[in-house]
Amino acid sequence: MKVCQIMAGDEEGGLEKHFVEMSNGLLDYVDQVVVIGHEKYRQRFLPRVHFISLDLSCSRRNLFMLFHLIKILRQEAPDVIHAQANKAVDILNSIRKFVPGFKVGTVHGKKKNLAMYTGMHTVIGVSKGAVFGFKHPDVRVVYNGIPSSSDNAYSRKTLVERFSLNPALHITLSVGRLVHVKAFDNLINAWQPEFGHLLIVGDGSEKIKLERLIQQRGLTGLVVLGGFCTDVRQMMSAADLLVFSSHREGFSYVLAEALLSRLPVLSTRVPGAEELLPEHFLVKVNDIDELSQSLRRVLANLPETVRLQSYLFDWASQTLTLQNMLSATAAIYRDLLERG
After folding, report:
1. Helix (H, G, I), strand (E, B) or coil at 16
2. Which CATH number fits the domain that encloses residue 11?
3. In terms of domains, do 331 and 254 share one?
């Protein structure tokens, strides 16, 4: 079986991580893997992955780009073309009649308009919430999977010294790009001094805005912007809680990493978290008061929080693995080929 993976973006985040890990990992499940994406990602793929550089970050109706993509796909003639996220799916949908192979599209986030997916043979959601209500004859759910980690977990002392924290206080972790959709401003507005430390790991366009908000609320030293870090999973072992304040998500890799690290989670009602976490640990989106009250309640009794989520940690260890994601995806490909 020959599979082609396509991604249209040129950014850094969960989508890009998924794209690379999926493409590299599928080498153990299919005969050939072809990748079409931005040149910046070339070095992230294993030598056996056939990488073809094509900048799809331009307009999705760029005729020059579409012509080259059609030419590449006809030359490669894959059995399955798998487009990751809306833009890549929209591009593939527009040329689907001119290229061979079964077409698969993955929904990575909750979107109002999924019309471009109607032309796919199969649609995969990274969570049930991502594809909830979407009408299509073949919709599957495959949760994002995390590779096993051989890196040593951080001690509390390491985390405290690295970010100049007070070891006597609770440490709550929040992770993501500093952009509007992650709603870190809501989280900072919900934070109270008695909650202890809030360590926000990530970088982005709202950094200066968030720094000002921290100062205005008198939370300097308690709320820390830790910047972009590649070792978030190692940090989780030294934290007390992970919190999401997002307006929307698909299925967060950070959520999966937390559950695999046995770190309890409090989240807004977004896909992924909403279908996994107990009701007691879900907060209405954009409700700062409820978020603050829930933080107070959870932080006041962390041992009980860990006990109530322990079954979820066990489930994650069996389900939210890279191997499970890859085998489930490859099974979908085989099903398509068998159905003809």
Report:
1. helix
2. 3.40.50.2000
3. no
